[in-house]
Amino acid sequence: MTASDLQVPLARRGSEFTLRDGTGVTIRELRDGDREELERFVEGLSEDTVYFRFLATGMDRQVIVSQLLPRPGGLSLVAVKGNVIVGHAAYYKSEGEAAEVGVLILDGYQGKGLGTRLIESIARAANADGVTMFEAVIGWNNTRMIKMVRTMGFPTSEKVEPDLIRIRFPTSIDPVTIAEFQERWMFTPGC
Amino acid sequence: MTATSEAEISEAQIAVHWKEEPLINPPVTMAQHANVKERSIYERFSEKNFPECFEEYADMLTWDQRWHTVLDTSKPPFWKWFVGGKLNASYNCVDRHLPKYRNKAALIWVPEPESEATQAITYQELYRRVNEFALVLESAGLKAGDRVTFHLPMVPELPISMLAAARLGIIHNQVFGGFSARACAERMEDSKSDVLVTVDGYYRNGGLIDKKKEADTTVEEAKKLGVEVRKVLVWRRHPGRYVSQSPMVEGRDYFVDDLIKPFRGKTIAPVSMDAEAPLFLMYTSGSTGRPKGAQHRTGGYLAYVAGTSKYVQDIHPEDVYWCFADIGWITGHSYIVYGPLAVAATSVMYEGVPLYPDPGRPWRIAERLGVNIFHTAPTTIRMLRKAGPDEPSKYDLHFKTMTTVGEPIEPEAWMWYYDVVGRKQAAITDTWWQTENGGFLCSTLPAISPMKPGSAGPGMPGIFPIILDENGDEVPAGQNKAGNMCIRNPWPGIMQTIWGDPERFVKVYYSKYNRNPDSKDWHDWPYFSGDGAVLAADGYFRILGRVDDVIKVAGHRLGTKELENAVLTTPEVAEAAAVAVADELRGHIPVVYVSLKPGNSASKELEDKIRENVVKGLGPIAKPRTVYIVPDLPKTRSGKIMRRVLVSISDRKDYGDITTLANPDIVETIRKQVQTA
């Protein structure tokens, strides 16, 4: 899973995946023309799902949509079934820092392995983009997401704060990236 | 795959950094008459004797039919206790005491106005009044399994109503008097309950509160939620008088004393209920937007509260026991009503507030009635200590045991309780448990364990606590390292489920540490309490407070989401974050940060409006100390609100690394606003 494996950047050509329950989805980059579908996607999110993603109660749906649109210094992917957006993942770069990664999936599509697929895909894209480190900020009681990130297959380093857990992981499992992760990015006591 | 984690428990979580306190031994003479005289109880209730050890509690009750299985673990985590057993809670708390204790006060009720006479209600009178009201409930169309909602203050009609409902297997749902009409309506909607029992008015802090008017609002609010409240049963605070300003609605509102007339002197047989039949619902706040109904079973719950009343508070029938708390929360259900009455106690109830008309009032009550077992919350202790530190010494007080409950108590307050209130003669039991647990989970036993100020003590007999870190590994004792307080085993007092939401029950309390959802072995299902704790080398637990988004105000749980939802009913508000800040008297109090929608500006009026909306949505107990209207809330680059930064600002502590925030400049702006206010 390294940048050199790819001939065409993954994000642009889109990849097809089969979820645990047999559903087929495509993961591709979010495009300008997706706005309407994105709005529909946001409408379909439950309060709990929104809360886990933004740690905010009662968010205005239009505000959520604008949060999910592509931004400079980042990349947004969507998982689609046909034309319908069922999942969204994005990372947000910061100079010299691990990029923050966020995932959002329709309730009906949760628990089927889509989260893992989205993170793997966006990790691959990030790695191709020169981003070698991710940080996920997860609410303390978002047990499902915590378990998923821990068991995805990347080495992880965690920092527990009063109301959330930060989990850092490299965007690739090649030896060079892992060495860098261990040397530079793992959480140390007191940090 | 490697994972490292560093548990960083912030100072905001550890309310007070106190050193390990020395142990204090109970009076040597206590053991002579105590219900628990020796440490052998821990052997009896040890893990090798689990779960049969709990038959000792169940045997304190009278059963119509004995159970065939003590604990059924076939459908974890929906444990079943005393399966096959049949009993009635009302019978156990009333009828069966008549042969020996009919003359004895079951309840002694102290009205708030000091000029009004105390009411001593014997088991005989309680028997009559419970039967009569049970017949009223039956005539209102209620039967076993139906829910009835009470929004009653601390008047004797509350335990009477509870026991009447229990007599027929009707599931009661008491809403704390301090919660708003809207909060009551939400609970009626969730429990699908269409009968409301209230009182016309009651006294609080010297004033008469119009409760019937509030009931009208409850009915209106319930209607908005799709519930048609068909009957409002109104008890009258003063016989023959009606103290409310709101008219009785024909066909909907009824005076209980009118309905009860045809049933005077009549009785109805207590219904023999399955041990697993639900007894009551008690709503509690958690991490969701609405409080959830903790559903408690009849047999296991009653056995657990009876046993723990007897062993922790050392209640004998000849004692005068006063639990100075509100029946509207679990402490009152378990340790004002069901536990003490099951063991034929005399249970004192006080209508009013601790400082009315002056800080000597509670001590006058204790002196007059000869209270020798006292049970209250740290918030009350702090209040009494602050307002009248020397008051207790003015009265002739002789406490044998004194219990504290609801939140951790700091050593300074504990020592005052011990020295000044208890005269160094009483054994203090600092208990830890929750609405979901039914009864005490951690506590010393008064005659046999040394007390440690600020620590709850070891697990109760038959309870096996464990502190787990975020990886699910045990946090070792004696290293001053905090972790998540969990209980390894099921116990009879534990709630059955969340009313109407079994999935959430599993998710909230078990999914954190259960690794194999298919396992039928109870060892694989540690109960996650949501409280943080530290375990000392001597085996005593020190509870630190909630690890989640729940704020404990004066021992009452408030969910941050519920608070935020109430704030968001203000149309000008775009985003809200509620955080807990330390409070001298109440332990913690909510503080709210909001940002506004474009086109709106901050003002005092808007702050007040927001505060009002919180009170309307939840109740006066939730009123935020301060509302800060800020330009934006601190967020990560992916848009997540960083509450810990706001907590640090409110607590005037270092807010740590903010370089990864999307809007780090806002932190200094907010800090200036808050800290120079």
Written account of the structure:
The complex is a heterodimer of chains A (191) and B (677). In chain A, α2 packs across α4. Chain A has a single domain, classed as Gcn5-related N-acetyltransferase (GNAT) (Aminopeptidase, 3-Layer(aba) Sandwich), CATH 3.40.630. By secondary structure, chain A is of the alpha+beta class. Chain A is globular, with a radius of gyration of 16 Å. Helices cover 34% and strands 28% of the residues of chain A. The N terminus of chain A is likely disordered. Chain A has an 8-stranded mixed beta sheet with strand order 1-2-3-4-5-6-8-7, sandwiched between helices. In chain A, β4 and β5 form a beta hairpin. By secondary structure, chain B is an alpha/beta fold. In chain B, a hairpin with an 8-residue loop joins β5 and β6. In chain B, α6 crosses α7, α8 crosses α9 and α11 packs across α12. Chain B starts with a strand and ends with a helix. The N terminus of chain B is likely disordered.
Which key terms come to mind for this protein?
heterodimer, A: 191 residues, alpha+beta, Aminopeptidase, 7 helices, globular, B: 677 residues, alpha/beta, 8-stranded mixed β-sheet, 7-stranded mixed β-sheet, 20 helices, 31 strands, disordered N terminus
> Quick one: how many beta strands of chain B?
31
Q: What does the average pLDDT of chain B come to?
A: 93
Percent of sequence in beta strands of chain B:
15-25%
| Order of strands across the main sheet of chain A | 1-2-3-4-5-6-8-7
In CATH, the architecture of chain A is: 3-Layer(aba) Sandwich
Q: What kind of oligomer do you see?
A: heterodimer
Classification by helices and strands of chain A: alpha+beta
Binned strand content of chain A: 25-35%
**From the alpha-carbon coordinates, what is the Rg of chain B to the nearest angstrom?**
25 Å
| Gyration radius over CA of chain A | 16 Å
